[in-house]
Each structure stands twice: as C-alpha cells, then as structure tokens.
Design brief:
Elements lengths: L3 E7 L7 H9 L7 E5 L9 H9 L5 E4 L2 H4 L3 H13 L4 E3 L2 E3 L4 H34 L12 H12 L5 H8 L3 H10 L10
Parallel strand pairs: 1-2, 1-3, 3-4
Antiparallel strand pairs: 4-5
Amino acid sequence: MGELIGYARCSTVEQDPTVQRETLTVLGVPDDRIHLDKGLTGTSRARPGLDQAPAAVRPGDTPVVPRLDRLARSVPDVRDIGDTLVARGVRLSLVGGVYDPADPMSKILFNMLTVFVEFEADLLKMRTREGMAVSRARGKLKGRRPKLAARRQDQLVRMHATGDYTIAGLVEVFSVGRATVYRVFERAGQGRAGGAA
C-alpha cells in the first residue's frame, strides 16, 4: 500500500499552519511527510512545497490536502495539478475524499469544488480592491513613503540647480537610485531635468 503525502499552504508568513497540520495528521499523514509553503498565494505556481510534494509521490501514493483552496485558487491550476498526478498513477485526497477521475461523480464534484474555489478567490480580490478604493478616498491609503525626506529632496534639487552635480553624482551623494532622483525632479516640477549622466 502507498504512502500519504500531505501538502499545506499559508498565504502569509504570519499565518499559522497548525490547523492544516492537525487536519492532515487526523487524515493519517505522518508529520515528516507534510510539505508546507508559507507566504505564498495559491495563484502562484512557484511554490517549493508544492513542487516537493508531488516529487515525493510514487504510483500508489496519495497526496492529501486539507482544503482544495490550499492547493490552488484557479480552475486551470487545480485541473493541471490533478491531471499531472493522475497521469502518474496517483489519486488526490481532499479532506479524506479521494478524487478519482475515472468516476464521473467524483470528477464532477471535483470540478464544481474547483469553480467555487476560483469564485471565492475572485471575490476576495474584488473586496480587497474595493477596500483599497475606500481607504484611498478617505486619505488613508497614500502609497509608498518617499525614500528621501522633504528637506533632503529640496537639498537634492538645489544641488542639481548649481550645475556642479551630475545625476550619477547625486545618486552617490544621496545613496539612492536614479529613479528616485528623477522622481524628486518630477515632484519639483522639473521632469527629468538635466539628464546629464
């Protein structure tokens, strides 16, 4: 009989994977066979734990995920992962229920769950965008803070106006990148003033 290989994911580094680990343990996955990704969203396929879990699976083994949304957040990704495992002779276990693509009922249930997962992800994105728009309208979301304080920006503009400093010289004096120097000029109404290197 094959082994159970667990996979868990937390979207942020601050999230605690304990509940997912406990769920996998209850489902029979040994602790040393649980692969974890932290700080990675389900929309990203560049996940080391997700790469390691299928790599550790042999025909007859069963990958186990505590919830489908931990595996992926879009219909194409879930199907691709599921099809890849099936092609290797591996069945996927979702919270104890095994996905068997040869069974029409199992297949339709899997596809329906996948649609709901993608719908939930889209709702989350929409709510995030709406929340940011409201915060921006109330003046609570103002973007990134400038790398140079206002006084230092004035000093940079004045130094450039003397004609004694090139852009490269200002970059070195203020320990910032060229893009920051040009942004300071734009805020001062000079555009990409004096493009001397």
